[in-house]
């Protein structure tokens, strides 16, 4: 699936969702690089690259909730 590594898919599979439900949830996701490009196009120079890198790392490490709570 787009934007998911094999390791991430296996990790998500361990959540005990049915195959159909799991793929529906994963299919509703967005690739971080795509979201970053959208924000850069929308906000241009005001978009903070450091903030984007922190967000990407939080997503990759599965700590997205902590990233939002720090704001």
Q: Treating each run of at least 4 consecutive H or I residues as one helix, how many helices?
A: 5
Number of strands: 0
Gross morphology is elongated
For the biggest sheet, the summary is: none
Protein structure class:
mainly alpha
Residue share in helix: 55-70%
Order of helices and strands: HHHHH
Mean pLDDT: 77
Oligomer: single chain
Portion of residues in beta strands equals: under 5%
Through-space gap between termini: 30 Å
Radius of gyration, in Å, reads 14 Å
Poorly predicted tracts of residues:
none
Q: What do you see in this structure?
A:
66% of the residues lie in helices and 0% in strands. The protein is mostly helical. The longest helix is centred in the middle third of the chain and has 12 residues, at 32-43. The mean pLDDT is 77.
What is shown here, in short?
Helix content is 66%, strand content 0%.
Task: Please write out the topology.
Elements: H1 6-13, H2 19-27, H3 32-43, H4 49-60, H5 64-69
